[in-house]
User: What shape does this take?
Amino acid sequence: ELERVKAARREAEAELVRVKDEAQEARARAAAAQAQSAAEWGAREGKLRQELALARQSAGAWHGHVQQSRAHADAARDSAAKQAHELERLRAGWEAQQQECAQLRAQLACMQTSLLAERARVSGAPPPARLA
Assistant: This one.
């Protein structure tokens, strides 16, 4: 009976050693998995931080581009307003010149008529039909 108890005790001790070894292996696998997971998350976090930095840089560049575009649009609008004002000024001057030309044409026509009438009077010829 003692031998049977000793044998059972040896089996129990062997089982305990086997269970302890399995537990040690499980702890080692868990530690390795945790280290690998931490490394993967660290790499992922680094990549995400880099992407965030690039996104911020890109946003800053776009902000600068938008401000520059607004400045160009403002300048173009101001230039267009100045050109419209200048065009209106030129149009008004052109209309004044057109009126002056019309007046000069009327004066020239009167002078031509007077000249033809004077020529007819001096030459003794009858006045041209358009003057009669």
User: Anything to note?
Assistant: Residues 2-123 form the longest helix (122 residues). The chain is about 90% helix and 0% strand. Residues 120 and 127 are 5 Å apart (CA to CA). The two ends are 167 Å apart (CA to CA).
